[in-house]
Amino acid sequence: xxxxxxxxxxxxxxxxxxxxxxxxxxxxxxxxxxxxxxxxxxxxxxxxxxxxxxxxxxxxxxxxxxxxxxxxxxxxxxxxxxxxxxxxxxxxxxxxxxxxxxxxxxxxxxxxxxxxxxxxxxxxxxxxxxxxxxxxxxxxxxxxxxxxxxxxxxxxxxxxxxxxxxxxxxxxxxxxxxxxxxxxxxxxxxxxxxxx
Amino acid sequence: xxxxxxxxxxxxxxxxxxxxxxxxxxxxxxxxxxxxxxxxxxxxxxxxxxxxxxxxxxxxxxxxxxxxxxxxxxxxxxxxxxxxxxxxxxxxxxxxxxxxxxxxxxxxxxxxxxxxxxxxxxxxxxxxxxxxxxxxxxxxxxxxxxxxxxxxxxxxxxxxxxxxxxxxxxxxxxxxxxxxxxxxxxxxxxxxxxxxxxxxxxxxxxxxxxxxxxxxxxxxxxxxxxxxxxxxxxxxxxxxxxxxxxxxxxxxxxxxxxxxxxxxxxxxxxxxxxxxxxxxxxxxxxxxxxxxxxxxxxxxxxxxxxxxxxxxxxxxxxxxxxxxxxxxxxxxxxxxxxxxxxxxxxxxxxxxxxxxxxxxxxxxxxxxxxxxxxxxxxxxxxxxxxxxxxxxxxxxxxxxxxxxxxxxxxxxxxxxxxxxx
Lengths: 196, 421
Ligand code: SF4
Description:
The complex is a heterodimer of chains A (196) and B (421). Chain A is α/β, with parallel strands linked by helices and 196 residues long. Chain A is 31% helix and 16% strand.
C-alpha cells in the first residue's frame, strides 16, 4: 500500500484558528510536568502550561492555534504534541522550535510552522492561517502575512498523513485497521508510552 | 568544501559523498534503544521490525516500578524482547540509565548513528557517535524501518586548549559554556582540539549529555587516543569483532562558529534555577544559598568517577542537619563497582541516602521529589522550573564535588575550600 497521503489528508497542512500567544523558552516541564506523566493522556492534558498560565487547558477550544517565542519545547522527548492534540490544538507556530519538540509535533501529525517574530505579529484572540504546503502564514485579524521556507516533502507527508504511526500502519508495520485509531491523540502518545 | 564530524557520519549513513547544511537526508540507524517508558501505557507490538540485532531495551526511568502504570510496562517489554529475540535486554537487575548502559556496553560506536527515546541520547556523542534523542513515536518508527531522516543543522565547534585544572570537572566546563554562549537551538556541537586529551572520558560524557540543555541537535567529540584505548579495553572494534570507522572533521569544514575554550582558566560553576543558559556564576561568586536537598546522580553525573569524587569529599564528614543528600548510581554496574571500591560505604556513612540505579529524582518522578519552597542543588541534567517536583522549588545545578561539599556545609559551597577544612 502506498504511504502517500490522500487529498483530504493534505488539507491537514492548511489550518485556520484562534491563537493563544505564549512567551520564550517554554520547556516540556511547563507542558508535561513529571506528575502528569503518571496520568493518562486526557488527564495529563489538563496540566499543559499549568504553571505558566493556570486554567488555560480549560479555555482552549478545538481548532485553536498555539503561538510561542524562541526555543519552544526545550527539554524531554515526552510526547507533548499528543497533549496538544488531546486539547484540540490544530497547529503550533513559534519563532524557533527545539528540534526534538518539532519532530515530535511532525510525528504526531500536528502542523508546526517557524515564523520569526511570531509573538509580536500575533495577539491572543487573533485569527491565524497557516499553509505548510505553501509556506505561508497570515494574521487575518490584522491583515499581516508572510512566507517561510517550505518544509521538506518527507516532513509534509508525515504531517499530512496523520503522523508517523498512521504511516507505519499504511506501510504494514502495524495492523492496518489501527491506522485511524493511531492518528488519534491518545495513540499519538502510544507505541510510544512516554519519553524523558 | 569539507565536512564536520556530524556531516561526515550523516553522509556516510545516507550513502552520499557529501551533505551540507540544510540538506534533508535519510540515514540507516545502527542501534535503536528503547526505554521502559516506551512500554508503559498503550504499547502496540509491531508486526515486524527492521533488525533485532540493532535493538537494545533498557529499563531505566521508573524501575523498580513506582506506579501501577509503570509496572504494566515491564511485561510488555519482556514479551517484546522474547517475541522478537532481542538479546540486548537490560532488565531490572542488569539495568541502569540508558546512556550509562549504552556506554558501559560499548553500544555507541565511533562513526555510527544511535537513536533512543530519551532527550539525553546526545550523551553518546562522547564516543564520536551521531546520537540524539527522538520522540517515542519516531523511535518506534526506526525500530520498524531501521531508518530515519535528519535535516543537517549548522555546526558550532568548541576548540579546547589548555589543561583542565584539578577540582574542575566536565559539569563545570559545560556550565561555563552554557553561561558564556547560551542556547544553540538547531545547531550541532563539535568538541575537539589539543585540550581534549586532558578531559577524562566521564567528563566528556557529562558535556556531551548536556548539549540537550542548550537545545543542540547532536553533540559530538573527536575520536582520539583516549577513545581508542577505551574501545580496546572493552574489546569493541578489536580484531575479530566487527570494526567501526571513526568520523573526523575535515580541516576545511565549515562551521557556524568556532569558539576557543581555555580549560586552564576554568573554575567550578553553579547554574541558578530555571535554565543553564546564561544563568551561571563561578562557585566563588554565587550566593551561599541554604539547601534542603542535594542530589548526585543522573546520566550526566551518576558515573563511577562521579561517585568516587563524591566519596572523596564526603569521607569522614557528615551531611549538615536539615539537608538530604541523595546519591543514585547511574547503573547497576556502577552501583556494584562503587560498592566494591568502598565509595558507597563512605557516602552512606556521611549520612547520604544511596538509591537503586534509575533516573529517579532527576526527572522529579520518584526517590527524591522536591516539595514547594525547597531549594535543591543537583548534579543531574536539568534545573528547569518543576523538573524535580514542585514548580515552587528552586533547583541549582553544579558538579558532584560541589554538591557533596554543599551537602556538608548546608549551603552552596566550594569543594576546593571544603577540602582544606
Ligand atoms: S537521568 Fe535524567 S536526564 Fe538522564 S535519562 Fe534519566 S531522566 Fe533523562
